[in-house]
Amino acid sequence: MIAIADTCFLITWSKYSKANILHSLFDIVYVPEPVLVETKSPETRSFVSRILLRNGRLYTPTPETYREAEELIISVDRLGIGVHIEMPEALCLVFAKKRLAVVLSENLGAYAVPHLIDNFSEVKVWRSIEVIYEAARREVLKVYDEKSFIEEIKIFERETGHLIRRKEVVKYAEKLFPRRT
Amino acid sequence: MKLSERLEEIMREARELRRKRADWDFINKQPEPIKSALIYLIEEGDLYVASRIAGVTVDEMNQLRIKAKIPIVV
Model confidence over A13-69: pLDDT tens digits? Predict the structure, then answer.
């Protein structure tokens, strides 16, 4: 399985103590070149560098990809439903569609695209909650019960300054540990 | 519930959480365009666009976000 990460996702995960689960989940993690321009802190640069050293690859979008990404941005805007995406996420989505990659992004617009745009319906977008859930499901990340999964999410929130809606946390906790009735 | 209504509800809920948790004293003390960028981030939740408004990198905008106690709501 391959993935491509957007800027915000990488900046976020540079602060998470268990970010190495990305290496176990994905064979290759593509880092778009524009991401490097947006990362200046030693912490984030060091994290991106570690990804590139292990199983990462720098991805330089072509002019054609930029054109397709621009088309996608306009298609989302035309829906007129208040969600939008910007060029960094659009480039990841176009790449993912062509290469069957998972997009790693926290952007709501990017997450909604497969549900909104017909020819992107096969694209998978994982936010941090889905990455942590998949890591737990594949036992890359050890969680033993609903409580320890929720505790792991709290650690993620504390370390990254993110806030994952409780409904989402409960949904994935119940998927991992279905309640017996 | 239609997908568009669901998305609207998620965006509203996220906006309320960002407004509530933000450190408004810190935000109000910031010079322009940082202050406007932080307010945009609270209202829209888009770190990339906020960084363009502030004229800084996404990484630097994220540091400002943390200082302003604005959560990224997922």
Answer: 999 999 999 999 999 999 999 888 888 889 999 999 999 999 999 999 999 999 999
Residue B74 lies in a domain: no
Range of the domain at B25: 3-67
pTM of the entire predicted model: 0.92
Q: Quick check: is B73 in a domain? A: no
Taking CA–CA distances from A128, the nearest residue in chain B reads B74
Q: Is residue B40 part of a domain?
A: yes
Domain assignment of residue B46, yes or no: yes
Per-position b or e across A77-97, b if 16+ CB within 10 A of its CB? eeeebebbbbbbbbbbbbbbb
**Contact between A128 and B74 (Cβ < 8 Å):** yes
Of B45, B69, B74, the CB nearest to A168: B74
Report how many domains make up chain B.
Answer: 1
Question: Which candidate in A76, A85, A165, A169 is best for mutational testing of the B interface (most B CBs within 10 A)?
Answer: A165
